[in-house]
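Appendix B: complex inputs.
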Amino acid sequence: RKEVEQDPGPFNVPEGATVAFNCTYSNSASQSFFWYRQDCRKEPKLLMSVYSSGNEDGRFTAQLNRASQYISLLIRDSKLSDSATYLCVVPPSGSARQLTFGSGTQLTVLP
Amino acid sequence: GAGVSQSPRYKVAKRGQDVALRCDPISGHVSLFWYQQALGQGPEFLTYFQNEAQLDKSGLPSDRFFAERPEGSVSTLKIQRTQQEDSAVYLCASSLAPDSEAFFGQGTRLTVV
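Resulting structure:
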């Protein structure tokens, strides 16, 4: 099993829709998580951090389910500008030193 | 500088050529990471530095890949005798600590022909 797994999509949704992505992780000791956003041919940028059960920032809500070892990202009232790839990220644990990235979920918001 | 700076932005190399990719991290960031990103994939870890010490190089795909950060700031990723499968975007990131938010540079897009 990969350390971090995401549904690659693509998710194509109309403007104004609500869309949710899930991400599963294998290391039960992981304590905090990140969602990064990556636009086409650009670098990843931090969208949200998730340290406890969840985090909300405007239209974006991230939730953590430790028992099932998954993190979700919910986008409400989606905008055209939300079109991007969303990367689930697990910080290092044990002897690892690096952030581990999922392969990303591609979202396209349609007019 | 205000952000992580990488150069060159684009590099075309002939197969067998050596290349050097530069990363200038955010001032004061102790941790520096190199990632390789293929089209349609998430970034894959290559190597990690804490100051000048290379603490993890487990992600380097072969001994043709070499990274250094001699003074604990600027880092260089060198690829010797490039091959077509080395074509990818090479991303550098820095952070205050290994488990804190990582800030990425814009990457170097390497194309080996």
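DSSP finds no helices and eleven strands in chain B.
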